[in-house]
Design a protein that fits this description.
The chain is an alpha/beta fold. It contains 29 helices and 19 strands. The relative contact order is 0.07.
């Protein structure tokens, strides 16, 4: 028998094999059609007396990647308005199906041949035995917390009952994932065998076992290590609440709901525990946090990586040889990641010693990977062999692509571009790695401005996932397509923006840092600024960020912008404070003093002298208002970028803000955040904050118009 999605076959020993193989998809995902097919197979097994047990495996390289979150896009907004009873039934549907599977009365083995995450691993948990193939592609875990959800098909109930509550917490609360051998050591799978022995081992286990009852369905079952009220376990929930506050400041509802599922559900029989899990799943599904995180970190991110902005009609491009201009920290990082993807790299700098130093960065990174056992010495040597440090432009005559990452100065970049004009082949695209200089101006130095584009990498380039692709006024569709193919080859996530000073990410984070340093001049306590930023969800406080980047770099950036664009430049609110610190020689962490004083052991504290230069107000603003100010000044700037046509779509702003500059992930990005608040409410609050703190918080006309028209950035009421 064959369903559309699951192939069903029974052998002479009465063993049914259910091969998951969703047609037209590269991975098996769980949607309604998948569940209907699985239900059909369950009924088939149940009704066939000759069937003694079953194997669930996959016909693809992966097992099951989890829920079809792409399919959830259409339901994201519907969830918020769905009656709670209907939403509960929807959230419980897979959980009920897997309960039906494990109480079928016939033993089941999960033969895990690839990635089994989320709902995919919950299918494995509902089986009576789990065998994994010893292959690098096998990965098991429950990552739902990372997109603002919880494992809603039994994960919060079965895993603690299987390995104990304390052991299960990191997998449930943090979304920790493991490869096969480590998963066996942790108890997530029972056996690990060679890939070619997977189905053989599954059959052997079924032939030797006829028990079809889960341990938690046996009378008298006790959770390994103790239940939630056991003195060995109970303190973990007290400590867990403290850690949640310290890590998330309760901005993320999913971890708290997961902890509640475990605490409440594991005191009850499994069926009642599963209902509690479904209740919390319904609660989370209504949350703007879950909707925003799913939309941005999965749906939109996946679309971006699949080329949602790639112009059609151009042959796929593969870079075989890359010219990397500038062997500093950025150039060295780009060279490494390109070499790791099989690309030959010519790493060029003015002096051979500088070029050699750029390659040494790759040597250090790879040596660490080898030392940790994450890469073989042979593979590391092969990667290093692809990087050729040099000063000779002639080596670029057959380059497929060139990325320039020299000093952020238009004259220096123009000098490099003119030298490249003499050697690059006509088909070669030249990309400038710049964080703020307009691509259309930089392209004036090129003889082929149609083949000139911006690729803004983030430091460290070999680790940061985002690339901001900037299209100049003369950049051709062919060049954009080639640039996006190159970013995909590097396995980075691209956003595409139009050309304007600051692009999107730099002006977005700049609005945050400029306003926050301006708060110092207003007399707001520096410690209050830093702590409110962290409580709002920013990874690092703005004063700490500035110290890390250095005060002199911030000063140079402002002066460069004033020099390059005298007509457009507006002095930021932070400039007087930055200039003051510069004059005092407080250049940031690199010299041990900036906004903070740093000691030799790595400790730091706010410099007491700040209060002498910028006396504190007697009446400080509330923490609530400051947190709102920190989030809103960035969201308002994002809306301005949209109004000015810098962004092609809200998805680019949401992805770029989170992956590039650390806007809190729980918001889903500025546009998900605005939608989650509601346009009328956001405009009203921004106006209130503007009256309190200044016009930088005043919402642009775009938001006022959208609020009046009942529009949103996403969903059925999205603006055209």
């Amino acid at each position: 028998m064959t369903t559309d999605i699951i192939r069903y076959a029974v052998d002479a020993d009465g063993i049914a094999t259910l091969t998951l193989d969703y047609p037209g998809k590269t991975m098996n995902v769980i949607d309604q059609a998948f569940m209907d097919s699985l239900d059909t197979c369950i009924e088939r097994m149940k009704g066939d007396a000759t069937v003694r047990g079953g194997i669930i495996t996959s016909g693809k390289d992966s097992f099951v990647a989890g829920a079809d979150l792409m399919g959830m896009e259409a339901n994201i907004d519907a969830m918020a308005d769905m009656p709670i009873e209907e939403l509960f039934e929807s959230c419980a549907s897979l959980s009920r199906l897997l309960r039906k599977l494990e109480t079928l009365g016939k033993p089941l083995v999960a033969a895990i041949n690839g990635m089994a995450l989320g709902g995919g691993y919950e299918i494995c948990l509902a089986c009576h035995h789990r065998i994994a193939a010893d292959a690098p592609t096998v990965m098991v875990g429950l990552p739902e917390a990372q997109v603002g959800l919880l494992p809603g098909a039994g994960g919060t109930q079965r895993l603690p009952r299987m390995i104990g509550i304390l052991a299960a917490l990191p997998f449930l609360m943090e979304g920790k994932q493991l490869q096969a051998v480590k998963a066996q050591e942790a108890g997530l799978v029972d056996d690990v065998v060679a890939p070619e022995q997977l189905l053989v081992a599954a059959r052997q286990w079924l032939l030797a076992h006829d028990s079809a009852t889960q341990p938690w369905d046996v009378k008298g079952f006790r959770i390994p290590g103790g239940g939630p009220l056991d003195p060995r376990v109970a303190p973990a929930f007290v400590v867990g609440n403290t850690l949640l506050q310290a890590k998330t400041f309760h901005n993320m509802p999913a971890p708290l709901c997961i902890q509640s599922c475990i605490y409440e559900g594991c005191q009850l029989p499994i069926d009642k525990g599963l209902r509690i899990e479904s209740k919390y799943m319904a609660t989370l599904s209504r949350s703007p946090v879950a909707r925003g995180m799913i939309r941005t970190l999965f749906v939109n991110k996946t679309k971006a990586e699949k080329g949602m902005h790639r112009p059609a009609g151009f042959e796929p491009f593969t870079c075989r040889k890359l010219g990397m201009m500038g062997a500093g920290m950025m150039g060295a990082g780009i060279a490494l990641v390109a070499a790791q993807r099989g690309i030959k790299v010519v790493l060029i700098d003015r002096e051979q010693a500088a070029a050699d130093k750029g390659k040494q960065y790759a040597e250090k990174v790879l040596a660490k990977l080898v030392g940790k056992g994450r890469q073989t010495r042979e593979k590391a040597d092969a990667i290093l062999a692809r990087i050729t440090p040099s000063t000779d432009y002639e080596l670029l005559r057959d380059a497929d692509m060139v990325v320039e990452a020299v000093f952020e100065d238009r004259a220096i970049k123009a000098e490099v571009t003119k030298k490249l004009n003499a050697v690059l082949p006509p088909t070669c695209v030249l990309a400038s790695n710049t964080s703020a200089l307009p691509i259309s101006l930089l392209a004036q130095a090129s003889e082929r401005p149609d083949c000139f584009i911006g690729l803004h990498f983030f430091s460290p380039a070999d680790k940061m996932p985002l690339v901001e692709v900037i299209r100049g006024r003369q950049t051709s569709d062919a060049t954009l397509a080639q640039a996006l193919d190159f970013v995909a080859q590097l396995k980075k996530t691209p956003i595409v923006v139009n050309d304007k000073r600051g692009f999107f990410t730099s002006r977005f984070i700049g609005a945050f840092v400029d306003d926050a340093i301006g708060m110092v001049a207003e007399g707001i306590a520096p410690a209050l600024i830093e702590n409110c930023a962290k409580h709002a969800g920013m990874p690092v406080g703005p004063l700490g960020i500035t110290d890390e980047l250095s005060i002199d770099l911030a000063k140079h950036a402002g002066e460069s912008q004033a020099k390059e664009f005298p007509e457009d430049y507006k002095q930021g609110r932070s400039v007087p404070v930055i200039n003051k610190l510069f004059d005092l020689g407080r250049l940031g962490r690199k010299v041990g003093k900036g906004f903070y004083d740093y000691d030799e052991s790595g400790g730091k504290r706010i410099w007491p002298g700040l209060a002498e230069h910028y006396p504190l107000k007697s009446l400080q603003p509330s923490a609530h208002d400051l947190k709102q100010r920190i989030l809103y000044v960035q969201a308002v700037e994002g809306a301005r970028a949209m109004e000015e046509g810098v962004l092609m779509a809200p998805a680019d702003g949401d992805i770029g803000s989170i992956l590039g500059v650390g806007f809190p992930a729980y918001t889903g990005g500025p546009f998900c955040f605005i939608d989650g608040v509601g346009l009328p409410q956001f405009v009203a609050e921004a106006d209130r904050l503007a009256e309190l703190f200044g016009e930088q918080l005043r919402p642009p006309q775009l938001l006022r118009d959208m609020a009046l028209k009942g529009q949103t950035f996403y969903g059925k009421t999205a603006r055209a």
